[in-house]
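agent> call fold_tool(seq_1)
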Amino acid sequence: MTVTMSKGANIPVPRTPVRLALHWRHGPGVPDAWTAALLMTADGRVAPGGVVGGGRPAPGGGAVRHEGRGAGGDRTTESVHVDLPAVPAHVERVVLVALAGSGTFGAVPGLDVTVTDAAGHRELARYESRDTTTETAFVAGELYRRQGGWKFRAVGQGYAGGAGALAAAHGLAPGLLPAPSATAAPPPARPAPPSAPARPSAVTLTKAAPSVSLAKQGATTGTLHVNLNWQAPPPPRGWFARNAVPRPPLDLDLGALYEMADGTKGVVQALGNAFGDLRRPPWIHLDGDDRTGAVEGGENLTVNLDHTRDFRRVLVFVTIYEGAAGFAGLHATVTLRPQHGAPVTFSLDECDVPSPVCALALLTQGPDGLVVHREARYLVPGRASSPQRALDEAYGWGLRWTPGRK
């Protein structure tokens, strides 16, 4: 029986040859995509010769090989054969990645990744990705070793920075990722659809105009992608650098307090691995941790707007996990990018207090649906109080807090 997985979930797979495949619906206006497998070592880098795809020969005696492209009906498939018992011992993970040409994965419908037996007759696991937006590179899923066996993880991590961002995250030069295969069969040609209406321009929230209705911007369904990016203060120089106390890298954590229409309350955050779920309550999911703040990366959180009426309020916030005592000098920008409708963006004010937590945006129910309020509010916890507790008290959430780690 097929196991349909949520983003970030994992499942054991038999230690036999399997097929790892990416599927999508082709059609007019849909960007083409192509895949590759990355063979990763224990240090998190691609093994020498460990990029399989684009006509490159498979290393390690062919234990991992790209099977090319197939099409049936309106579906396109690219698959990778992985002979798990024969995978070289130094390879810890086999990662299925994809790149989009002349568009983003938000415009690629029906994006699914499956694990089947080698013949493709028996489906072992399926992950349906439905929250991509501006990404042009995508990590679909991975097979990885665990306690002498193998597991599959539904990753679903996108990169708006394309091949360059994907390559950098895996210790590769961008040129090592494959271009579209010359032998790949193009999707069937169909009549071009009518031109889509132009996407509305971005809305910038300010102190004078701090709120906007998502519905009035055309964002009533699909997903709302929330991104925080920042610029870390430059390191000290000269005498200050020689005498500075070493600090760990700056680590900011995006999160959200939520209150549902039925009164259920909770938090989505990296602490305690409370990453949420986009396909079931709380209809909010937090992506993986980022320590760069780059525009194509940063901290990312997604809200399922198909369940707008299930929310009473959502408070998006950021905390400093380590690396700084406050937000001074970070120059942070918040962008809320709905799948449909205009993006909403604003910058944070300069912080002049020793604050480790900032309320970014509050989503509440308005007459037409969710309304975004710019908060940009720095809080200073009292003694023996955590950043999350200070946020809870300021907004009257009423949760019980215990220490947590990530």
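agent> call fold_tool(seq_2)
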Amino acid sequence: MRVGVLTGGGDCPGLNAVIRAVVRKGIKDYGYEFVGFRDGWRGPLEGDTMPLDRAAVSGILPRGGTILGSSRTNLMKIEGGVEKVKQNMAELNIDALVAIGGEDTLGVATQLHDQGVKVVGVPKTIDNDLNATDYTFGFDTAVNIATEAIDRLHTTAESHHRALVVEVMGRHAGWIALHSGMAAGANVILIPERPFDIHEVVAHVESRFQTNYAPILVVAEGAHPKDGQMELSTGEKDSFGHVRLGGIGQRLSEEIESRTGKEARSVVLGHVQRGGTPSAFDRVLATRLGVNAIEAVHDQEYGRMVGLQGTEIVRVDLSAATDKLKTVPSERFEEAEVFFG
């Protein structure tokens, strides 16, 4: 059997660990041959491949990024894209496909399965917002990076008696902000799921200053106030229709400074959250998902995604992962609110 592997969407710590596990398990236990598609869905669309054997995946477990490359190519918006993928897979004698990606990548995989392509999905996103899995690999690494950055910012904020607003990733779900903010002792956490009251935010900041401590605010990039959007965007959209966000941290720091008279600065962590070496947790999770993905291929359970539920790796329908986002529930945010101010 010949199996294709691709990684799509944003890069994420742990992608290489999945690739390694898929290939090592598939070769050792089943004698499969593997082909890597370059740059997400562009690879099968254009027939751009690279060999994936034991030598190709040797030593990649701790490496960030993806040896296959990635892109946000949306072949569903390309005329004849699906047929081109089918044709290329047939010409390359590829029997099945393992697609590693987030909402957009797995959304395409779902549609391909509906049109007869044999595909198994592996969930990937640092935002942890994919449904039907408790955690996605990359999330733990992103939280650790953000937490370390916030820890360091506490000292500089206190030295200069200023408020610091730390903007982290999270377009529609505030998991990174919630976890890193709680872990690092942030005084305010703002997430997309809970539109904030700017008056309450300023009150928390002033309360913190009154105790002679400098406030740290952690804000997800998609957070917004109750009375309207505050984040800036370029207006540009990617191939999946997502507007590029950015600017909420800067706008919020300006608002705090004007309302309190205290100096406020913003720090945007940006892509540093998803770069570099994956954490031990993400390496193990990614490895387990990779092993179970190729087992699903062997069992011919196509149209399925492997995910983590509790401590077990399970198989769910691909559609279950993408039919809705997994957002932060109210009770989780209320746990964090205890420590605001």
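agent> summarizing second result for user.
Confidence is low (pLDDT under 50) at residues 229-234. The longest strand covers residues 2-7.
agent> awaiting next instruction.
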